[in-house]
Structures are given as structure tokens and as C-alpha cells.
Write a structure and sequence with these properties.
By secondary structure, the chain is α/β, with parallel strands linked by helices. It folds into two domains: 135 residues, Periplasmic binding protein-like II (D-Maltodextrin-Binding Protein, domain 2, 3-Layer(aba) Sandwich); 91 residues, D-Maltodextrin-Binding Protein, domain 2, CATH 3.40.190. It has a five-stranded mixed β-sheet with strand order 11-10-12-9-13, sandwiched between helices. A hairpin with a 5-residue loop joins strand 3 and strand 4. The radius of gyration is 23 Å and the shape is globular.
């Protein structure tokens, strides 16, 4: 009996040695010494390429600070935004930090962090001779960023307002291309987050950005990082970092740097979930 018991113990020990518990995502990142995050570097001022082709912006500074808190290096991965969640699950990067708006549809596939920026929607239109409000887009061509929640928002708001656009909603991978399309008369309105449109307005004084909430149809919208459903340890670490950054002033300082104003007080302390 003792022999059988000893053999069983030995077998169990061998099994535990042969199949150790897998490390979490956070441990894996620390072991590699770097954290990769997905974005599309065409979304000022969150992320864009400077004159030296380096990716810079609010997300970059924030990701660098987060990586430093983990003792690793941050590596931005420029990717196609319309397939960014699939790329996350393909293993192309560890998380998404690219000015993503948290939505119910996206939540079906990823978990979101505590918000680190306001993502209220806005509309860009011509300053002179263009529509003055949303209903003024009736019968006109409109557009939104490819893969963004503003596409469905345009559809829902048009239905609620009883208007119809000219043709299908167009999409652009680059805000700058949308602004050029507006200047040439190919579209009359472009929907995105208000903060990105205000940034675009600086370089395009003939265009105007306006807040847009479709008469209160949409609730609060927030920018958050996104994680694979199984990577809760990494999400928890990022949440703790954001909450601490709100307290120590880092988030305020970075928002002042990149947006010219602070949105910290309006940001909730809980991650969006449905």
C-alpha cells in the first residue's frame, strides 16, 4: 500500500513538473521586457506620425508611462483600425490603446479599461455655406471614420430626426482625407470624436467642429484601452495605473499637453460594461 501511495505521489509530482501552470499575460510581458499595443497612427492628437515619421501623441505618452510603471518598454504597432480587435486576438499585440471608444458591440469581444479620455461625438462641416446643424445634412453625403461607432450613430440619428443622406455613409481611414473630401464638396459632414475634430479644425480653419449628441439620444462616450477577455491581470494593472494617474496629476498634464484642456474630472472610475 505504501509503495502504491509513493508511486502515486511520484506520478503526481512528475505531472506537475511536466505541466506547470501557465503564467498570466502580465508576467509574460514582464518576462519579455516589452508591451505591444495596437493603434492606427492617423488619429490626431491621440496618435500620428511627426515630421520624422515617429509615432507621437497622447496615447504614446500614456503608454510609455504605463510601460515604465511595469518596468518594460512600450512598443506601438500601427495597424488597420477596422480589423484591430481581430489583430489583438491574432497575437499581433498585447492590448489596444488607440483612442478606442468603448461600445456595447466591441464589448462582446473585448473588455475595456477605466476610461482615460472623453469620447463625445462631433460633426465637422464647412464653416461658410455648409449645414448649420444635423438636420441640415438631409439629402447630403456624409462620412465617418472606418470601423468607428459614429457610422451607426449617423444611421440612428438620421432615423430619429426623419432625414435621409445622399447614398451610403462613406468611410475614411484617415481624417485628413475626409477633410479634403469636404473641401472639394464630395461630403457635407464628417462624424468623429469632438476632440479629434477640434484638432483637425486647427489645421483647417475653413471647417468647423460642433458637438453632437443627437438631442440626447447618446449617453456618455469614453475612450478606453481594450483587452482580450482572458487578460484580466493586464487590464487590472492598467486600471490601477489610470486611477493613480488621475490622482497624481499625470493624466491632467498629458491632456493639457495634447488637448489644451483637462477632462479628468468628468471621467468615471469604473470600466464601461454592458
Amino acid at each position: 500500500m505504501k509503495l502504491l501511495w509513493s508511486l502515486a505521489i511520484a506520478a503526481g509530482l512528475a505531472l506537475s513538473i511536466a505541466a506547470p501552470a501557465s503564467a498570466g499575460k502580465l508576467d509574460d510581458i514582464k518576462a519579455k521586457g516589452e508591451i505591444k499595443y495596437g493603434l492606427e497612427a492617423q488619429y490626431r492628437p491621440f496618435e500620428f506620425r511627426d515630421e520624422n515619421n515617429n509615432i507621437v501623441g497622447y496615447d504614446i505618452d500614456l503608454a510609455d508611462a504605463f510601460a515604465k510603471s511595469l518596468g518594460v518598454k512600450a512598443v506601438p504597432i500601427d495597424t488597420n483600425w477596422s480589423t484591430v480587435i481581430q489583430s489583438l486576438y491574432n497575437g499581433d499585440f498585447d492590448m489596444i490603446q488607440g483612442g478606442m471608444t468603448a461600445t456595447q458591440k466591441r464589448f462582446e469581444k473585448v473588455n475595456f479599461s477605466v476610461p482615460y479620455m472623453d469620447a463625445a461625438s462631433g460633426l465637422m462641416m464647412k464653416k461658410d455655406g455648409g449645414p448649420t446643424d444635423f438636420k441640415g445634412l438631409n439629402g447630403k453625403a456624409v462620412a465617418a471614420g472606418n470601423g468607428t461607432p459614429q457610422i451607426k450613430m449617423l444611421q440612428d440619428c438620421a432615423a430619429a430626426a426623419g432625414i435621409a443622406f445622399d447614398g451610403e455613409i462613406q468611410t475614411f481611414d484617415n481624417d485628413a482625407l475626409a477633410y479634403e473630401a469636404m473641401k472639394s464638396g464630395r461630403i457635407a459632414g464628417y462624424a468623429s470624436t469632438i476632440v479629434s475634430l477640434l484638432e483637425g479644425q486647427k489645421a483647417n480653419p475653413d471647417l468647423k467642429a460642433m458637438s453632437w449628441n443627437c438631442d440626447g439620444k447618446f449617453g456618455g462616450e469614453w475612450t478606453a484601452a481594450a483587452f482580450r477577455k482572458e487578460d484580466e491581470d493586464l487590464r487590472a494593472a492598467f486600471d490601477a495605473f489610470i486611477l493613480e494617474s488621475k490622482k497624481n496629476g499625470l493624466l491632467n498634464d498629458l491632456q493639457m499637453k495634447w488637448f489644451g484642456q483637462s477632462f479628468v474630472e468628468a471621467l468615471p472610475d469604473k470600466a464601461p460594461a454592458w
